[in-house]
Amino acid sequence: MPLVSLVLPAFNEVENLADAVAGVATALDDVGPAWQLVIVDDGSTDGTGDLARQLAASDPRVVVARHPRNRGKGAALKTGVALATAPVVGYTDADLPFDMEALGRAYARLAETGADLVAGVRVNRERYSLRRRVVSGTYNALVRAILNVPHDDLGFALKMMRRETFERAELESDGGFVCVELIAKTYAAGLQIERVGVEFTPRTRGTSTMAGPASVAGIIRDLIRYRLGRLPSGRLGRSAETSA
Q: How far apart are CA 1 and CA 19, in angstroms?
């Protein structure tokens, strides 16, 4: 059994996927030889799925799942964890948001502190554009005010946790709000959350879908729905095709 399973949601990331997988492999090799990577092709149309299957063919520790249509980050995460076999699960994005060595530090922090979840926190957000800093700052302030969660940078794509932490959360969001939902439910349950500082890396290839107006509006909508107890429940692992 692997020590850790990492879920890598990927939507139209053919330009970044090979480097992301190589970075994950190097980082997890430092944890130990027994690890698993679950790539979830979330309805890509640019060849991401074909490349993912090629990468999996060269390493039996890599598993690929495919959504026939784009369903969102939360749906991809739930599909990936459903296929994960390790007692510790984590996830990040395929657009190389940081040096993947941070995965090893997050795993070590989880083990050393006995925490239930470790979340990455960006320490160099000044590298973002002014617009991105304003959007991020406003969103985090809204989350803290509406959900009473005393944490910052909740949406950053580095989380490492015990499998039972993920299962206990019973995540509902199929979209980008899933990162906040996970932290909010973990905090509300009285579980231990630790942080690890990460220097993020700006995207240099491909196109981000998370920072666009439609995505931001969807996340805010789900935040309000969650607060009102009206967030639609996504179905775990539905409509996914898998291959080793």
A: 25
